[in-house]
Design goal:
Elements (H helix, E strand, L loop, with lengths): L1 E4 L3 H12 L26 H9 L1 H4 L11 E5 L9 E4 L3 E5 L4 H4 L4 H18 L3 H7 L18 H7 L7 H9 L5 H20 L4
Helix pairs in contact: 1-5, 5-9
Length: 207
C-alpha cells in the first residue's frame, strides 16, 4: 500500500497506474492524508529519527489495520537526510522522497522514478529488513543494479534505466526466495514492473 501526504495527487495516480499495469500486480495504492502530523518537522534533518519513524509507520497509521505481510510505503514531498531518495526499515515500512526528480528523469517523469523506488524497496525490505543491512550490501560503484548506492545523485539515472540485479546481487535475492523471505511470484511481477518503468524512461529521451 502506498501512503502519501503533501504529494501532488496526479503524481501518485501516475505512479499507481505504472505499478498496477502488470497483470496480477502485488502492489496497490491508497491515498491517506495526515499521516505525519505534528511530529514531521523534527524529522527533516535527523537520519536516526527518520529510520525510527519509518519503522513505526504501521503502528502509527491512524484508524487503519494493515496486514503484517503488506509493505507500507510513505511518499513525502520533503527531502530525506543525507540526500537519500528512499529509506526502509522493518517491519516492511518504506519512505520515498517524491520531490526534485525533474533534473534526473526529465519533466513529467517523476512518477516513473517514484514507481521504481516503490518497487525496488518492496523487494529490498524483504531481503534486507533494516537500512543498515541494505547499506552494507549496496555498491559504492554504480553498475546499473538496484543495489547501487548512488552517492553521486546523478548515478540514479543508470540505476533507473537498468532496472536489474547485477551478477553479484542476483544470488542474494535467489537465496531469499529459497529461504521463504521473498515470494518468487512477487519477485517476477516486480521485475516486470521495473521493465515497464525502464521502457518508459528510455522512451522519454525521444519525447
Amino acid at each position: 500500500e502506498v501512503l502519501a501526504r503533501e504529494v501532488v495527487q496526479t503524481l501518485l495516480d501516475a505512479a499507481r497506474m505504472q505499478l498496477v499495469q502488470v497483470e496480477l500486480s502485488p502492489i496497490k495504492a491508497e491515498w491517506v492524508e495526515e499521516l505525519l502530523g505534528a511530529q514531521e518537522p523534527a524529522l527533516f534533518n535527523d537520519w536516526e529519527k527518520w529510520l525510527a519513524f519509518a519503522g513505526a509507520l504501521r503502528k502509527d497509521l491512524p484508524k487503519k489495520s494493515v496486514d503484517a505481510n503488506v509493505i507500507l510505503v510513505l511518499l513525502t514531498s520533503h527531502g530525506l537526510p543525507r540526500r537519500w531518495f528512499s529509506i526502509h526499515q522493518a517491519p516492511g515500512c518504506v519512505v520515498v522522497d517524491s520531490s526534485g526528480w525533474d533534473q534526473y528523469v526529465g519533466k513529467g517523469r517523476a512518477h516513473l522514478a517514484v514507481a521504481h523506488l516503490v518497487a525496488t524497496n518492496a523487494l529490498g525490505t524483504r531481503v534486507f529488513p533494516f537500512m543498515a543491512d541494505w547499506q552494507q550490501a549496496s555498491h559504492a560503484d554504480a553498475r546499473g543494479c538496484m543495489m547501487d548506492l548512488c552517492q553521486d545523485k546523478r548515478e540514479i539515472q543508470a540505476k533507473l534505466r537498468a532496472a536489474d540485479l547485477c551478477t553479484e546481487c542476483a544470488p542474494i535475492f535467489k537465496k531469499a526466495i529459497l529461504l521463504g523471505r521473498l515470494s518468487a511470484p512477487h519477485f517476477r511481477h516486480i521485475m516486470d514492473m521495473l521493465e515497464g518503468i525502464r521502457r518508459g524512461l528510455l522512451n522519454s529521451r525521444f519525447q
